[in-house]
Amino acid sequence: MTQAPSDSAGVPGGRPPGGSTDSAEKKPLLSVRDLVQEFVVRQAGGTKGGVVQAVSGVSFDIMPGETLGIVGETGSGKSTLARAVLQAPRPKSGSVRFRDMELTRLSGSALISARRHLQFVWQDPFGSLDPKWQVRSIVEEPLAAHRAGDRNARRKRADELLDLVGLDPARYAKRHPRELSGGQAQRVAIARAVALEPSLLICDEAVSSLDVLIQAQVLNLFERLRRELGLSYLFIAHDLALVKQVSDRVGVMYLGKFCEVGPGESVYKQPLHPYTKALLDSIPSTEPGAARATATLTGEPPSPISPPSGCRFRTRCPRAQEVCASEVPQPRELGPGHLVACHFPLAQSAPAGQAMVPQDTTPTTAKAQR
């Protein structure tokens, strides 16, 4: 949740599972403060056509051994946030502190060395794997880049990693990515990501392209690796039901900002932000006789080039009042570690007698031209 920087442990509710020590609980593995990422839009002739406000003042912590899940609609800024943490590209402003290193101030070999402990798993495994390389060479690549051991040692390590992710080296080491299924290719990508024994994995829609059965298998693999290797995760997805399975805490993003952050069970059982509730209401139920999921949001998200004043969700919010247009809601902790940025959270009743802010029905393309 977006908060002012402080010298405390950071976002409430961040705790590693499994009973870590007090010192570990007080010291985040990753601490992000007031992160801003913007992109200039160029028109014909190279003239400036506007600025995309992709991420706007986001703050959060990830503790050792913890998984923070980030959800939101397409275009909410989730993937841009992940790339900004990795410094690819660098954010416009803000702080990204990882293992006591300020990543925004590192460059060259120092940044490469820091990234050894901060690895990325991409959405499309085939797009992230070199089609000309054999699987063993792909897994060996980070070891060779960081000069870890000799050739025989790297080969042995690659085979161990393939076995770790459930692929028999004797069967798969000499295959090319085109000879793998989607799930097998993603396992290879995961093996490569953990080759250098990182502390944190950033998973950007890492299972979104897989079918449901393979999704479950890969999620189980992520959980097993967390236990065995002591990993932490920044897990990004648009599927709330999926994120619930793997996350200790969940952050809900809308148009470049966190609108709600809290423990997974708390966010799912008692959402405080109207946007979170709308996302949860859209999930089909598997219970017999349950009501069908209904879409509670109307209209398209506003353009990030020209976001609404005040609360960015107000143009689609059924509880919006005049104050929502004039004041940016600040995060408030309404439960243990459960923060919400809303003037009228669901835990409270909307005040009566105030005129509702008219719904903004301007098409997104028209807003982008303002």
Automatic annotation (TrEMBL):
Going by the entry's taxonomy, the superkingdom of the source organism is recorded as Bacteria
Q: Name one GO biological process term.
A: transmembrane transport
SMART domains cross-referenced by the UniProt entry = AAA
Q: Name one Pfam family in it.
A: ABC_tran
For region Disordered, the annotated ranges are 1-27, 289-310
Q: Which UniProt keywords apply?
A: ATP-binding, Nucleotide-binding, Transport
Q: Which residues form the ABC transporter domain?
A: 30-280
Gene Ontology molecular functions:
ATP binding; ATP hydrolysis activity
Recorded family membership: Belongs to the ABC transporter superfamily.
Q: Specify the protein name.
A: ABC transporter ATP-binding protein
